[in-house]
UniProtKB/TrEMBL annotation:
Active site, renumbered: E263
Organism, scientific name: Neurospora tetrasperma (strain FGSC 2508 / ATCC MYA-4615 / P0657)
Top-level taxonomic group: Eukaryota
Alphabetized UniProt keyword annotations: Signal
Signal peptide: 1-18
InterPro entries found in the cross-reference section: ConA-like_dom_sf, Peptidase_G1, Peptidase_G1_sf
Protein name per Swiss-Prot or TrEMBL: Concanavalin A-like lectin/glucanase
SUPFAM superfamilies, sorted: Concanavalin A-like lectins/glucanases (SSF49899)
GO MF annotation: an example: glutamic-type endopeptidase activity
Amino acid sequence: MKPSILLTLTATAASTSAFTLPFKFRRDTISTEASNTTPNHRLLHSPPTNVVGNARGRIKAASTINNRPSFLRAGSYLPYHPPAATPDHPYQNQDMIQSVTGSLIIPTISMPVSGPTAGNSVGEYSASLWVGIDGASATDSFTHPIANATCNPLAASLRAGVDIFWDGTLGGQQTPYVWAQWYPAEHARGFLDFKASPGDELRFTVTTGPHGNSGGGVLVENYGPPQSPKGVDGKVKIPIATGSLIWKDMPPLCSAQASWILEDFPLQERPELPSALGNFTDVRFSEMGFATWLGGNFTGEDVLAKDKLKMLEIYDAGQGGTLARCKTDGEGEKKSVVCSRVVEA
C-alpha cells in the first residue's frame, strides 16, 4: 500500500475544465492517418429494456429456465468497504475507491459454432469489455460513508472499454470501438481518431472526484501488439494512441466496486434485447489495481486474492445457458483474470 500520485489532466472532454487525476497523462500520440474507427453497429451500454422472447436470428432474447434469471455480465469485481474509524485515523471510515486500472488484449470475435445463436452467417455478434468503478453487481450491501445511506453500485458507474463486433453482412468485418461512459447520465462516448485492432493491448485508468460525486476522468492507452516491458529494441514502451475524457458535476457513485467486466449489451437499434454474444478468444484482464482517496494502492494479491475478488458469469437461457465463465490464472505479477466463451445449458 502506498500513496497515490495526483497530477492534473487537461484534455478535450465532456468538460473543458482541468481535473485532478491520480495518473501520469501522456500527450496524445494518435496517428493522423485516415482510418475507419466506427463499426457498422453500436452497442447501447445499458441493460436490455425487455428480457422476454425467443426469436432466432441476429439478436437472441434473454429468458429464464428453472427460475434462473438471465445475467449478462461476466468478469470480476472487488467490493471495497472502508475500515472502521480509530482515534488515530478518525476519517478512514470515509475512504472510497478513487481509481481503477486494468489492461487487456483486444480479442478476435467470430460466429458461434454451437448453441441457439450459432450459424447465422449474415448475422451480427458482439461483446463488450470494460474497466470501471461500480456497475458490477447489486448483491453487496453498501452504505455510502458520506451520505450515510444504502447505495446500489448498479445505479451508476464510470467506465471505459472496447466493443468488438462480427458482422456477417460485411464478410465478418471486425472494427473494435473504444469508448467511455458515466452511466446512466449519458451515452457512451468514442475517442476521436482512436485506432484499435484485434491483438492490440489496451490499458484503462478510470478515476472519480472526491467521494465519487464531483466528476472524474478516464485515460485509455493503446500500446499496439504486446511488447516487452521495455518496448521494442529496449526503448520505453509508448502508446500508439491515447484517448481521454473528463467530467464534472455528475451524479454520485457509490465508489464501492473495482470492476473488470465482459458484458452482453443490446444493439442500439434493438434496445429491448441483448445482442447475440460472439465467439471470442479468451479475454485476459491483467495489471489490475485500484486506489482509494486516503492513499491506499492495491495491486497483485491485494486484488486477486480468492477470498476478496468475486467472479461473475453470463447466463442467458435464450442463447443456450451459461455463455462466459472467468477464473484467476498465473502467479505473482502475471496473475490475472481470464474469461472464456462457453455454451453450457
